[in-house]
Amino acid sequence: MTRKIVAGNWKMNLNYSEAKTLLKDLMAQKEQFNADVELIICPPAPYLSAFAEVLKDQEWVQLGSQNNFFLDHGAYTGEVSPTQLKSLGVKYGIVGHSERRDNFNEDYSMLSKKVKALLKNDITPIFCCGEQLQVRDSNVYKEFIMKQIHDSLFKLKPEEISKIIIAYEPIWAIGTGKTASSEQAQEIHHLIRSRIASQYDEKVANKVGILYGGSCNAENAKELFSQADIDGGLIGGASLKADSFLTIANAFE
Ligand code: PGA
To answer: CA angle, 54 as apex, 122 and 237 as ends, to 5°?
Structure first.
């Protein structure tokens, strides 16, 4: 294991008052979070500004965005630019979540531009990849996942890809309560790391954080995080309760 990272993806959940309560609940337990873990919360975009104010001088947790446009400014109604996110103090950004690939047709080349735009603004991309159930069943899942990574990330320079976090999120496990087994997850994480090592080198591969996502929860996080190439988790549903998020963040051996 190289890094220890736990990120909460709140998705389009919680109204503002509920979101503030969750932030307050997390803050009430801040001393209990393992200080060795890079802890990230990704609330809905409209809340980022107020959260950034509250978390201004705090080191124990960082803010992440769930999505960003690939240009810094201009006539793009409704979009949020990486420069704007940077100006709020956002340090991480989820890119290419399967829900965005599916619902908003985000393709490989758009995702590669989004990743570059974040890096240019000193925001760490959390790049998501993962296969649908039929791809897993048809046994071409390794090629499928590696193509997602190859096409969007492998044109980056070594010093750029070293900064990236990759989240392996099998789509059949997202929000379904059906977690990948630790062996299934480790197989893919190991494959991703070895492919980065052959494309770049081992030093680069060991710097890239590789997270598991997909029904990771307080019960299964320990087993998943004990695998050699699993550096932590991207957590959806279980990040919406302070207690389960704390248990997951502290699940490293
Ligand atoms: P889940 O979502 O933990 O609710 O399965 C994970 C994700 O989609 O990032």
So the answer is: 80
